[in-house]
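Our working data are protein records whose layout never changes between entries. Getting from the letters to the tokens is the skill we practise here. To make this concrete, we reproduce a full record directly below:
***
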Amino acid sequence: MHALKLTQIGNSVGVILPKEVLARLKVEKGDTLHLTDTPGGIALTPYEPNLEQQLAIGREFMREYRDTFHALAK
């Protein structure tokens, strides 16, 4: 567990993430993190929270039109 202190950053308030946390998240300066609500609190992740849902919809679409995609590939 890491205790993080809120700090003034310009007109905003932020937290500085330790190098170990950045390494575990596999992120670096300039990357985007997503904050999501969870039953246990909040989660900070580099992955788009809705990506899995979007991929599932895309897979279903491709499955539904499999014959059409096969014909187009010829």
